[in-house]
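One chain shown below:
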Amino acid sequence: MRPAYLVVAAVVALALAGCSPGEDEAAGPVISSAASPAPASKEPTKTGPTKKGPPPPSYSDWELGAARLPLRPDGLGEMRPTPPELVERRFPTVDLLPPPEDDRFRSTIGPVTPAIRERMGRTWSSRCPVGLEGLRYLTVTFRGFDDLAHTGELVVAASEAEDVVSVFRALYAADYPIEEMRLPTTADLEAHPTGDGNNTAALVCRPTTGGTSWSAHAYGLAIDLNPFQNPYEKGDVVLPELASSYLDRSWQRPAMIRPGSLVVREFARIGWAWGGAWSTLKDYQHFSATGR
């Protein structure tokens, strides 16, 4: 999303958002290694009726972003088995934007203002293949793993903004859980790998090796959704580095994206392809308008 969207060489820089020209070049995920704010409460309360069914699993007992991974020669963190605390990952969402006042889906589409541009930091620059006028700042309501409504934010291509909002409207209606959705920043690009990031994000502008081509993320034409539950895999590379348990797609856990699932169908409806269907690598979190 280093790219969590990455080309194994651009990945060398940061395991955040990859810029790759095609499936064979391993466009990695837009994963953030920067530590997210610690959950304010392990057991947030919610008023109103509760849903029927078995009780949800308890929240994960793991301090996000606290343990730095040793670096590999390629600049990525060392790939390690998923800690037991993260095998069935579930954290409450920390609100960085005001949550909706009720349970209704809400969204906004607007320009990238100077304040938003400042927050984006080095994830965009004048060298990028799309200018700020060709991008839009979105806010959308999403359902957290805490079963509460939250407000997320994305920067995407202006041409795709309305369609992207329609996808997240459908995911919210279906109670598809998302842990975190915030703008990647310079801090994410510079963070030492911890392998436990899970930020859903779109635009991160980075060139591939040699700087001759850009990933779909650099155009705002790709989104990485719940990267930890839906990791990137090519050869011995797994991103996030601690998410290998989720490569077992036969063990269905919340937020895992599977062939024919609502998430895949909704992105397909707007013409976006899924990296989980690729053959030379698997990028289960990745959806793009370009098919790469």
